[in-house]
Known about the structure:
Elements: H1 6-34, H2 39-43, H3 54-72, H4 90-105, E1 120-124, E2 130-134, H5 135-171
Antiparallel strand pairs: 1-2
Helix pairs in contact: 1-3, 1-4, 1-5, 3-4, 3-5
Amino acid sequence: MAALTLHSTAFLPVINGLKNAHAFxxxxxxxxxxxSTDPTTLLTTSxxxxxxxxxxxxxxxxxxxxxxxIRLNPALVDRELKLxxxxxxxxxxxxxxxxxxxxxxxxxEIDFEGIAKDTxxxxxxxxxxxxxxxxxxxxxxxxxxxxxxxxxxxxxxxFFFQLFLLLVVFGxxxxxxxxxxxx
Length: 183
């Protein structure tokens, strides 16, 4: 059995996460179409007033994924995937996710040969702040948690949106408005 590599531990879970996100967001899009729900209702929803909307969350988890290769190996900066945050529809967001997955799949183990677990990774934010971590620590304590946190937020968006729709549909014309289950 081959040893785990930086490539396999850093990229394969994220690629699978992107493909799963594509599948469940496709189902959300289909749901909106089949139930005649305006897609903007979901796309502009946030779970809290201080939170950005669904589209913003897709931008963030795909950014977390696309920055992974060039942060681990800055020599790959010429292959950076440029994705402006201009997607507003399900189709555009799904295309962004697909492009990100294909981009990560284009990297091979050889692209990260010589990157040791303690190779310093520098992360810089638009506000000028940032930090440095070893490559292994970067993947385990920043890149993956950031990616999976935002991806899980999208699951919550869809869960609560579906729950909201069920409550609205159940409540309309059921004859049970304002009555308890025993009423």
